[in-house]
Amino acid sequence: MVVTHGALQATRGRCALTIGNFDGVHRGHRALIDRVAAKARELKLASCVLTFEPHPREFFSRDAAPARLSRLRDKLELLATTGIKRVHIVRFDARFASLAAERFVEDVLLRGLGTRWLLVGRDFRFGARRAGDFGTLEEAAVRHGFRLEAMPDVLFEGERVSSSAVRGALGAGDLRRAERLLGHPYTLSGRVAHGAKLGRALGFPTANIALRRPPPLGGIFAVEVEGLGPGVASVGRRPTVNPVPVPLLEVHLFDCDQELYGRHLKVCFLEKLRDEKKYDGLDALKQAIAQDAGRAREYFARHG
């Protein structure tokens, strides 16, 4: 998969394209991409995804924007598993947000990407003040000679698959529903940073991963760290000792004595054990962590 970003230059290639945030790369996104890939093979075109960084809603209303399901790095890794040939990342800034709908069609879709076939949902909006819609694209397709197709909603086990539905499941602690909608377990990733070493002092050393934005879930979880094995993790603000303004991911691995500082870890969330809670002192906190670790070990014993 080829990843490009930034300003688009006039291309000589031709592509079958779909457009979106693709947050979480869930089953609905994969159905969309599968259709693009199949059509690209049929028409002998390159398959392409156009996505944005940051998400448009983060640009327009950062504090009110929904929690991300996946960081850009994780999204690209998931997209790479779909077989798509190219991903172009548009920097969503004031200049791009002010681009008129017709200019978007001409400069981005046609001149920049060489779009010959386009797949979007009927609720797709684009251009300055979201003035462009599916009807706008239908008119542009006739005028410029590309083909347009509407993607219907994707249902899984009777439920419409969407990033909002996945966020709802994660917020409710329903990791099984989230996994059904995603088509894969939910993960968070990041680089291990130095902390206050409180976990080590309590007998439960942790790998601390700072999160740039509040995640869509919180609490205490049984987790699996890619390449390192099972453990127990906390996602929260540490209300008992050293509170933090943005939730922190702290992972205690059961069978790992490696030095992890500076390493990039991928943490897979398997079972929610409880919500985060403020305790009356370090002794109570240590006892709670021991109980959490015990419950996580029981989970892995049942699902081993």
Helix and strand sequence = EEHEHHEHHEHEEEHHEHEEEEEH
Question: Rounded to an integer, what's the Rg over CA atoms?
Answer: 22 Å
* CATH topology term of the largest domain: Rossmann fold
Output the CATH class name of the largest domain. Answer: Alpha Beta
Note down, in words, how this protein is organized.
With 304 residues, the protein is of the alpha/beta class. It has 2 domains: 158 residues, Rossmann fold (3-Layer(aba) Sandwich); 118 residues, Elongation Factor Tu (Ef-tu), domain 3 (Beta Barrel). It is built from 10 helices and 14 strands. A hairpin with a 2-residue loop joins strand 7 and strand 8. The longest helix is centred in the C-terminal third of the chain and has 21 residues. 34% of the residues are buried.
Features:
6-stranded antiparallel β-barrel; 304 residues; alpha/beta; Elongation Factor Tu (Ef-tu), domain 3; Rossmann fold; elongated; 14 strands; 33% helix
Q: How would you summarize the topology of this molecule?
A:
Elements: E1 2-5, E2 15-19, H1 27-43, E3 46-53, H2 56-60, H3 72-80, E4 86-91, H4 94-97, H5 101-112, E5 115-121, H6 134-144, E6 147-151, E7 155-156, E8 159-160, H7 163-171, H8 175-182, E9 186-193, H9 198-201, E10 207-210, E11 219-225, E12 229-236, E13 248-253, E14 264-274, H10 282-302
Parallel strand pairs: 1-4, 2-3, 2-5, 3-4, 5-6
Antiparallel strand pairs: 7-8, 9-10, 9-14, 10-13, 11-12, 11-14, 12-13
Helix pairs in contact: 5-6, 7-8
